[in-house]
Known about the structure:
- The structure holds two protein chains of two kinds.
- By secondary structure, chain A is an alpha+beta fold.
- Chain A has two helices and three strands.
- Chain A has helices at 16-27, 52-63; strands spanning 2-9, 40-45, 69-76.
- The longest helix of chain A is centred in the first third of the chain and has 12 residues, at 16-27.
- In chain B, the strands form two sheets. Chain B has a nine-stranded mixed sheet, with helices on both faces.
- Classes of the chains: A alpha+beta, B alpha/beta.
- The interface between A and B is medium-sized, with 12 and 20 residues.
Amino acid sequence: MRATVIVMPKESVLDPQGVAVREAIKHQGLQGVKEVRIGKFMEIELESGADEKDLHAVCRDLLSNPVIEDYRLQVHP
Amino acid sequence: MRCAVVRFPGSNCDQDCYRVLREACDTDYVWHKETSVAAYDLIVLPGGFSYGDYLRCGAIARFSPVMRSVIEEAGKGKLVLGICNGFQILCEARLLPGALIRNASLHFICRRVTVRVENMDTPFTNAGTTGALLELPIAHGEGNYFADEETLRSLDRHRQVLLRYADAAGRASAEANPNGSARNIAGVCNRRRNVFGLMPHPERASDPRLGSVDGKVIFESILQNG
């Protein structure tokens, strides 16, 4: 089985990388860019039967920092 | 007083901390795979790039075997000092509130800054003077202190902010803030006041040959408690 995790900075956290990339996109000539936010995408290969509760614990304790980030976990059997 | 300087893979300020502490007390290096720091009165998490700053700064070091004991000893009231990457590790371990995110400028900043001592009512600052200005080096890419509004208010209410970036006149102005830190915060302690984390490097400003001895006040404060 496979799990995918997306970790994004919380809305309330300034994302200076996203701001810099937004400006770079504008310089490329693309019109109407309002906001860019940069996060992380992780793929985890697992033996089948992993407990989703354990995966959430890993997401919460290690893969993201709840002070500054939110995560989304998807499990693909 | 017995002091431990914890070494993680990627620590690089461990020798500086060791040199400063060794002059005044019994000091050991402790490898991060050790499982107990119970023998020590002060535990220092030095600066560096533990685990290459992978995932987030301090996120992996926080789960090193030694950290379970560091958390336990902090709970017993032992002194824990985290400098730079050590501060990041303490935040990741939830021994200190908030988090350290990318500098607002996106630049790695390596220069001397001025910080203002906010209060001396802790074992880390009690040899100092409230309002005193210290010249200390910073060297970090992720030193931008972040906490939500409620946490920031609580930090002020409980006088947990020990250092703020300030200008030469002692004003915690936006211009004096090198990295975008909330409320110019350069260092905070926990409610119990026995865990302290700061981004500037007092150990790099504790010898006249290094150009400043302003950092000594932190170590003198700690040592006079022991």
